[in-house]
Amino acid sequence: MRPSLFPMVLLLAVGCATAPPLRSHFSRPPHLFPADGFITQRAVLSVHGRQFPLNGYLALSAAGGKRLVVTENFGHVVADVLVKPEGTIFVMKSSPMFPSKYIRRGLADDLQCLFGDATNQDCPVEMPEADHFILKRRAYSLDLRILEVKSGPQPADLFDAAKAEIK
Questions:
Q1: DSSP state of 133
Q2: Structural domain of residue 151, as residue ranges?
């Protein structure tokens, strides 16, 4: 009598049907990044099946906030945002790839999600390694790698909101 393969295939299919869900909040390990420092990053943004390689430079200042500059591979700035310590967002520079409204609603939220100080709600992030973050939103995902972290105070003019393109 030959055993049926159907029950075994069904068990395998049921076991593989769903992946474990991402947590809806994220707590970054404490002291992973300095309060004052400069972080060089590389990311791949995936939107509707298309991938966009990006570079990022994040300046951190306990007093001044967070300043993120995002460039394409050839160095053209596609987004520049300043988030003050109290949470006020200033769009320093936008582009057709990242209009101001997307910088405010997406990029700034993701910046706070990944580099904010508190546990962030609605922050679906996996952290496979200390220098690797995977953020998955409904409309896009971001695979971010930290290339270099330099500790130390950053120039105060990086955090000057008066230079913002859109206030």
A1: E
A2: 23-163
